């Protein structure tokens, strides 16, 4: 089993708040991992650190064996673009742009050729093909969520970090997104890590990490 994420004693404090108090986790490639915890337990903080968006106060983070906080900035930007897809809790879509322009934004930035076949596959799998030319601000929360997932996957990352990807979805769409992650994981050898406060969602994962007050309270495999 290949290790894709390894954190050691990661700590992050915000003045009085101990958001992460020594988180050490090991995640294997091609698993579906759920980080489960109540609001404020540190899920988003951990995911932002794994994505290099914020720096831990202490500890190390290796993604595919590379210590991301020891890389040069330019090297990390390229590494992140090719290795990590991130679905933000609040989507961070450009509301004036169409769905497809949002999805292709990370590709356009690099002036790369669009893999039209893959784009169409994502749009169909996420059931947003019919919405591709719709302006994002006219979409429902669940539709935006699926656009954000497509954008995270467009560069075929190895690791997908999805922060509450089902938080805005009804049970039908929650099931659809979970099934999609499982399918894409198999199709593209992805490792999918989701943050959730919902045990029913977390129990679909192969690997469950429970965070409580910024500490790993449980870390179990269920294969
Ligand atoms: N930028 C910040 N400045 C100050 N405190 C912060 C900041 N970001 C997070 N925190 C605090 O750190 C703790 C962990 O927050 P975090 O957002 O990681 O939790 P979470 O598990 O993602 O919660 P939720 O389920 O509500 O999204 C909380 O107490 C939060 O108030
Ligand atoms: Mg959060």
Automatic annotation (TrEMBL):
It comes from the Bacteria. Residues 5-222 form the ABC transporter domain. SMART domains: AAA (SM00382). Pfam families: ABC_tran. InterPro entries: AAA+_ATPase, ABC_transporter-like_ATP-bd, ABC_transporter-like_CS, MacB-like_ATP-bd, P-loop_NTPase. Gene3D superfamilies: P-loop containing nucleotide triphosphate hydrolases. GO terms for molecular function: ATP binding. CDD domains: ABC_MJ0796_LolCDE_FtsE. Keywords: ATP-binding, Nucleotide-binding, Transport. The keyword Ligase does not apply. Belongs to the ABC transporter superfamily. This is ABC transporter ATP-binding protein. It comes from Amedibacillus dolichus.
């Amino acid at each position: 089993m290949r290790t894709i994420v390894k954190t050691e004693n990661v700590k992050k404090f915000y003045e009085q708040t101990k958001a992460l108090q020594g988180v050490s986790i090991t995640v294997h490639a091609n698993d579906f991992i759920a980080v489960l915890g109540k609001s404020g337990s540190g899920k988003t903080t951990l995911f932002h650190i794994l994505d290099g968006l914020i720096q831990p106060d202490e500890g190390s983070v290796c993604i595919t064996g590379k210590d991301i906080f020891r890389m040069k900035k330019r090297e990390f930007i390229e590494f992140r673009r090719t290795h990590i897809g991130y679905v933000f809790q609040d989507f961070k879509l450009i509301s004036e742009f169409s769905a497809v322009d949002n999805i292709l934004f990370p590709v356009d930035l690099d002036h790369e050729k669009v893999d039209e076949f893959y784009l169409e596959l994502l749009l169909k799998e996420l059931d947003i093909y019919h919405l591709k030319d719709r302006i994002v601000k006219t979409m429902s929360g669940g539709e935006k969520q699926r656009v954000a997932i497509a954008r995270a996957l467009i560069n075929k990352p190895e690791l997908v970090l999805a922060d509450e990807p089902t938080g805005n979805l009804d049970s039908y769409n929650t099931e659809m997104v979970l099934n999609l992650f499982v399918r894409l994981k198999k199709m593209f050898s992805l490792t999918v890590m989701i943050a959730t406060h919902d045990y029913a969602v977390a129990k679909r994962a192969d690997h469950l990490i429970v965070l409580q007050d910024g500490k790993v309270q449980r870390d179990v495999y269920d294969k």
